Amino acid sequence: NNETKSEFTEIALYDDDNNNDNDNNKRNRHDSYHNNGKTSWYHASAMIVGEIMGTGVMGLPKAMSGLGWGLGIFACLFFTYCAYYSGILLSKVKHKYYPNAKSYAEIAEKITGYKFKYFTEFCILFSWILTTPYYLMAATNSLVIAFYNIEGICYYSWAIILMFIMIIPLQKRTLHDIRNLTLASDIAVILVLIIILLSFIIQGKNDNVITSFTIPNNTNGLEIYGNFSSFIFAYLGQAMFLEIMSEMKDSKQFPKSIYIGNTIMMIVYLLTCIIAYGYKGNDIDGFLPASLANNFIKTIVGILLCFHIIVSYLLVSQVLCSKLHEKIYPHSYHRNNYKTKKHWFIITISVLIFSYFIANLVPFFSDFQGFIGAALGAPIMFAWPSYFYIKSSKLHGFQLNLKEKIITYLFLYILFPTCTIFGIIIASKNIINDWNTYGKPFDCILAGFD
Fold it and tell me: In this structure, are residues 94 and 245 in contact, taking their beta carbons and an 8 Å threshold?
């Protein structure tokens, strides 16, 4: 018990009921290399904003155009609170019941068993695996926008150029190693949004711009869920929250980190949607920077946004590759030698190649964003945190208060199934339609974000 109390403040990586001598040695080697307990609460906020905000916001004005002013603003505020409360639930589960847990899979094993652990682990890894091609796609689109005046280079060629740029920074093995990049990345995406929105304001509103306070007539019921999926994706990052907490100096301050992070994102998302939709109306592009006029401003925006998305890719890739490294090469995972670096290189390059394949298979930004938001975002934001908290409280003999019951049951039994099922249907339909309209996989699509 004394050992458990001391390790609680250091955010241990393994549960105490697995503490044999061999595991202790592994854990000590892992801790010494992975620099746990060095991240402050404000760095954690930056990681949350840096990992979540950026690409998601680029599709929100288009989603708002399908919802209208009223439902669009409500969706932004509502899903902000959902994202915040999901983080609070995860923080409560960790600090109240399982202080040594650092992943969804570890908590799943504690409350249900090995089968649920493996299922959860598969789903989270799958979500990260699909997020990496999404970021590669968005970064490639940013390059296409930045160098709009260069003709004859296909979408897949731009993606290859980007892959070579990313090889060296991908060799960083901890979130702590790239924490300073997240601050620069946050500044970059904020500058991008400021430049885009100021450009819209300076350019002025055309007389033929059409907006609607209510749901537009051409939006059906399923498409509403598809647009909701874009907002869900814009706040998606809960699967990394336990990992971020595990690297904090004081993880009890995590609620402060998610409050600040989600507040920043809410303000940015609202301003972006209101200005972009207000000035461009229903003609807004699915990838926001594509709505800019062809000039040097578009180039600056494309370069800054590309940098931000690369950092977002690094954040997700670091956690994903760390999990894959532990499973594929367990003997080198806890070390820091040549073999470890070689294995890490193999894994990061393999993930990058896979991302390239998927990004060219479905090169349509807003469609892929909607699909991820529905298929992975809704379960990760609504289902797991709610189930973890309900089940953990029951196992430890605690009763949920009225507020906790209402919100967790709403998450688990209403928002999770409806947003997932209906969102997947409409996103899949949109992907098929765009294949027929813009081109098949690996065609020379110069505007894959359309």
Answer: yes
In sequence order, the 6+-apart residues with CB closer than 8 A to the CB of 260 are 42, 45
In which band, very low, low, confident or very high, does the pLDDT at 93 lie, cut at 50, 70 and 90? very high
37 confidence band (pLDDT: 50, 70, 90)? low
Residue 249 is given by DSSP the state S
Q: CA 59, CA 6: separation in Å to the nearest integer?
A: 45
Residues 6+ apart with CB under 8 A from 133: 354, 355, 356, 357, 358, 359, 368
pTM of the model: 0.75
Distance CA 125, CA 351 (A): 12
CB 288 within 8 A of CB 276: yes
Place of tokens 């003709």: 151
Among 231, 423, 238, 383, residue whose Cα is nearest residue 316: 238
Residue 89, pLDDT > 90, answer yes
Query: Is 55 in a helix, a strand, or coil?
Result: coil
Residues 343, 162: contact at Cβ < 8 Å?
no
Report helix, strand or coil for 248: strand
**H helix runs in 204-253, sequence order:** 221-234, 241-246
Residue the block writes with tokens 């970064």:
139
- Asked if 231 and 378 count as a contact pair (C-beta separation under 8 A), the reply is no
Cβ-based neighbours of 144, under 8 Å, separated by 6 or more: 155, 158, 302, 446, 447, 448, 449
Alpha helices in 281-396 (DSSP H): 296-328, 330-333, 338-361, 365-372, 378, 384-395
